[in-house]
Amino acid sequence: MIKVEHLYKKFGSNEVLTDISTDIKKGEVVSIIGPSGSGKSTFLRCLNMLEIPTSGKVIINGQDLTGPKKDVQKIRQGIGMVFQHFHLFPHLTVLENLTYAPMKVKGESKSLAEEKARALLLRVGLAEKEKAYPSSLSGGQKQRVAIARALAMEPELMLFDEPTSALDPEMVKEVLDVMKDLAKSGMTMAVVTHEMGFAREVADRVLFLDHGILVEEGKPLEFFASPKTERARDFLEKVL
Amino acid sequence: MNLDFSQMVPYIPFILEGIWVTLKFVIVAIILGSILGTILALFKIGSIKPLRWFADAYTSIFRGTPLILQLMIIYYSIPQLTGYDISPFLSAILAFGLNSSAYISEIIRAGIQAVDKGQMEAAQALGIPYRAMMKDIILPQALKNILPALMNEFITLTKESAIVSTIGYLDLMRRAQVVGSDLFRNFEPLLFVGLIYWCLVMGLTVLGRMFERRLKQSD
């Protein structure tokens, strides 16, 4: 579904990603882990062109995002993204946050968009909050709304950029539960996370990045039990 | 102390008519200034270099020269250069609209840039087109932040409108001068229109507060 080939990203003279190649299959859940500053988030943001790669290819469903004259907007509609700091639209109610893009971008009718939005809110356990504004929600609730907002566009792929890093500890579980549920339903997911528990339990594959290099990838059980590289061993010793 | 407002009484309807005359061009100038200012602000934050240069040069010229000079240039030069006999009303709208758009564009630019960058990224990630994102996501949030500064600009414009009296436009200020020279008493009519200007500005302030409260409902 996603194919990444020799991806490089530089900010000025600072090389953040170096020659990354991998692919993610349909229905696969991939966790991207690594120390801070390792380029995890930049890598994720290159997958929907929030960062433009300096060179290399990102191919999604056969379409090269980095090719000339690609309709990035169109491709983004099929890719949901969840941010560390939620980025809900603060001047819109929860329901409006969910219905705005489907109505505006896909031309869905208001009644259809609202019907689907209510179903999604039910799914993330926030049905009673549809009229609330984001400022009245807790961090965990905001993130669940943000996940629902991304799902409202019916994406084939979901990107999560440290979705639980800005949350109070007691709220991490409610967000992870929603993500686990999503993974079970067969959604293709790429998750940048510091939650090793999630990576181990839910992910089909773990990518370990360090200093912008894809150092190691593998099945979570093998990776966490016996990492092949020195750097991954070091990292796991520190975080586990 | 020899204050005598009684002599002014017959002139009061004449002066009061000036309220509408002043308001008429102030309102049009505010609308023109806001529309142009928004467009200029979008030029300034956009990625098209010539438009950015244009907007910067425009702002620099209109902020860098006196408003009264701009008014005079428009009023006197257009007939001289084109032969079109421009009315004081049109000159006033143009001068005030063009001038305030320079200030408003700076206010709006700052407001847009103060909106969290994540808002734009969230909108982009949902595939929302640029125009819709600006109109429905970014500008409403910017407006909330800049409302006090914008009200300030509108208040300044309302008061500064008095300088159109210099091109013979019969606004409040000009009417006070006319009455003054008719009565050979200037203090009373000036005091009277001063009060009217103050009331207008207070009205504007109350309106702004109400609007601000409405925008705050999402907090």
TrEMBL record, chain A:
Gene Ontology molecular function, alphabetical = ABC-type amino acid transporter activity; ATP binding; ATP hydrolysis activity
Task: Tell me if ATP-binding is a UniProt keyword of this record.
Answer: yes
What is the residue range of the signal peptide feature? none
Record key words, sorted: ATP-binding, Nucleotide-binding, Transport
Has keyword ATP-binding? yes
Kindly give the Pfam families that the UniProt entry links to this protein.
Answer: ABC_tran (PF00005)
Domain ABC transporter as annotated: residue spans: 2-236
Question: SMART domains attached here?
Answer: AAA
Protein name according to UniProt? Polar amino acid transport system ATP-binding protein
Name the species this protein comes from: Planococcus koreensis
From TrEMBL, chain B:
What does the record list as GO biological process? amino acid transport
Q: Name one Pfam family in it.
A: BPD_transp_1
Keywords noted in UniProt? Amino-acid transport, Cell membrane, Membrane, Transmembrane, Transmembrane helix, Transport
Question: Could you tell me which InterPro entries the record lists for this protein?
Answer: AA_ABC_transptr_permease_3TM, ArtM/GltK/GlnP/TcyL/YhdX-like, MetI-like, MetI-like_sf
Give every ABC transmembrane type-1 domain span: 19-208
**SUPFAM superfamilies linked:** MetI-like
Residue ranges annotated as transmembrane are 20-43, 55-78, 190-211
Q: What GO terms are given for molecular function? A: transmembrane transporter activity
- Membrane topology note: Multi-pass membrane protein
Query: What subcellular compartments does it reside in?
Result: Cell membrane
> One GO cellular component from the entry?
ATP-binding cassette (ABC) transporter complex
Write out the similarity annotation: Belongs to the binding-protein-dependent transport system permease family. HisMQ subfamily.
Name of the protein in its database record: Polar amino acid transport system permease protein
Per the UniProt entry, what species is this protein from, by scientific name? Answer: Planococcus koreensis
